[in-house]
Every structure is written in structure tokens, then in C-alpha cells.
Amino acid sequence: MRGLVLSGGGARGAYEIGVYRALAEEGGLSFGVVTGTSVGALNAALIAQGDLDRAESLWRQITTETVLQLDAASLSALPPGEAVTTAVGFVSQYLQNGGVDTSPLKALLEDCIDEGRVRRSPTELGLVTVEYPTLKPCTLLCRDIPEGRLIDYLMASSSLFPALQRWEIDGKLYMDGGYYDNLPVELAGRCGADEIWAVDLHAPGVKRPGSLKRARVIDCYWDLGPVLDFSPRQARHNLAVGAQDGRKALGLRDGFAYTFARGEGDALLPLLRITRAELEALLGGLSPLTRIGLQRTVRTLFRPYSYRLRSYEDMALRCAEVAGELFSVPHTPTYTAAGFLRSLRGRRAVWARRKKRSLSQEAALRMAGELRNPLDIAKLGTVIPKEAIAAAFLYVLDRADQKR
């Protein structure tokens, strides 16, 4: 059986819906069990009841005010929609009430979630919450939850105390399941899932490293925003990058941090006018000490993707991404190799003309102009690996442009 596991992460949760849409609609994957913690549990309930369009629509329209009851004085203190405005409300209401009131979220769930449909679904729902003050973990399947209380247990799983108020059920207080297991892979396994896909929002909370070995984990390279800053703009971004990462996990797109059309990853190296033989000759000419320095640079920068770097083409693509990030190439589009290089050239030209640049941009531009060989960066890479890799890529790109 195939299982889907969704982590807690508050306002970042739109990313999970983006990933799921890609897995289900473009990958044709169905899941016998969906488990989640906190916002992951809320998304899991929407997925279990088969309401993906409703889930996406909800995220596209969500605001902090539709989820949390912030007092009017806090909200009027600063322009609406600002993350810092939300923070003022949290501090104010935590001091007064032991956390922000989440009753608007309950009203939203009552409008969106049909408990009967969830219970009748062929997809089993699982969630995690923690009893307070005993800190007793509660890992529950929908069938374990008394009739009519599903939304209460979803609220309990999402009560990020002390920022948010604890949730009371039958005289007992509960708080966010992230205090026990923010990515409940083990729960999916206990339900019989032997193929597990997990979406990790990298939010504060406990994760059980041993269980992650059982799962194929999808996560985002880019910033998904603060966990308690609900805004339609951030949600739209997170939905988009979630869908892109889902496609990459399925092998329908190329890329690591950025997204390329399928097959475009291998098209990059020829555009740089550098052959495998030239790369091998350059590597073969390095001294042992320089080679060690280069290896350290590559390991430092490519660590999150080391299991996927299988060829020179992969390495070239990741180097291009490093340069793209440094010069703020937009990360939401799907690129061709040629299109990405055009965007990188344009962004580099913009930053080169500006008087105010980041230290990283300044270092990369300066090094790129001083290199005589792209592997000279091995001398500096252990000190400033990202800038050195970007400089080496810019050097190769400039050389390719001169050959045209």
C-alpha cells in the first residue's frame, strides 16, 4: 500500500497541496493512507475526502485573520498583511490569554471538511496530537476518533502552544502534534504502507530520523515563509513550488533547486561549449591537494543533492543553479537550458551595473573576471564555496559566449 505523510508547518502548508496535486494528477498516484501533523493533518483530511480543488482554493484565499482571532488593536498597529503585525498580535494575546484564539480556524474547518466523507473514504486518515500537561502522544486514525469529533482532533493537532491556545476535548487539553512527531512516517507504516512519500516543511518540531529512512522525502530548497504568516501571496508561491517539486520527484522535470523541462538538464553542457573530454583533462591536471580542495567545495555545496548527482551533466546543472540563485534568477518558472542561461546573463548584467551589490555577488563577479581556468576556484572554494562555484560557472559561460 502507498502512503502519504504531511508534516506540520503552519502557513507553509500550501506547499503540500501543490506536491499532492502533481503526484495525483500528473503522476497518477493514489494513496491508501494519508497521515499528518498540525497543518499536515488538515491537508490530509481534505485529501482523504477527495477535495483537492477545495483545498487549493482555500489556500489561495487564506489570510491570517481567517485562521486566527487577533485583537483589533494589534491588527491596526501596522499595515494589514505584514508578518510583523501578526507577531504583535501573538505577543499581546499570549500575555493576556495564554495563546492566540484559533476559533476562526475551527469555523473554516467546519465549512471545508465533511467528516462523513472522510470516514467513508477509501483513504485512511491519521493524525498526531499531544496531551497537555502530561505530554502523552496520541497517534490516531480516523476510525479511532469518536463520531462528530474529527474537527476537534484536527484542531488539537494544530494547536501550536504557546503561540496558539491549547485545544480542549472532553475536559482534556491538547497541543500541536509536532511536539511528538512532526512528520508521522511511523504512523503510516503501522497502517500497512510499504511505499511512503513524505512532504517535509522543515518547521520546528520533533522528527524521528530512523523512520525517515523508510520514506521518499520531498522538500523545498526555497524559503516557504514564516509558519504563522498566512497570506494569499505566499500561499500561491508555495502551491507553485510544491507542484514543481512534485513533478521533479516523479521524474517529469529536471533540476535540483530550479525546475527544467524534462531532458533540458542534459542539454546544458553542450550549450557551454565544453566537452566531457575537456572536463576530464582539467580534472586530470589538478594536483592532489587542489583536487581535495575542489572535492570539499563540491561536497559542501551539493550535499542536499549528492544522491542525485550522477554525471557531469548533473554537476553542470547544479553549478548553473548556484549562479542563478546568487544573481536572483526567478525560481518559479520551468526553464529550458537555453532559457535559463538567457535569464542568468540578464540578471548578471543587471547586478554588474548596480553600485550596491551583496558581498557574494561582488566576490563571484570579481573571481569570474580573474580566473584563467574554471578549476582555479579550488584554491578559494573551501572558504567561499557558493561564490567560487558561481564564478567558475560564469567563467565557462563567458568562454562559451566568446566561441559563438
Automatic annotation (TrEMBL):
Catalytic residues of the enzyme: 38, 176
Motif (DGA/G): 176-178
InterPro entries on file: Acyl_Trfase/lysoPLipase (IPR016035), NTE (IPR050301), PNPLA_dom (IPR002641)
GO biological process, one term: lipid catabolic process
Pfam families: Patatin
Key words of the record: Hydrolase, Lipid degradation, Lipid metabolism
GO molecular function, one term: hydrolase activity
Top-level taxon of the source organism: Bacteria
Record's signal peptide: none
Residue numbers covered by motif GXGXXG: 8-13
Name of the protein described by the UniProt record: Patatin-like phospholipase
Organism field: Bittarella massiliensis (ex Durand et al. 2017)
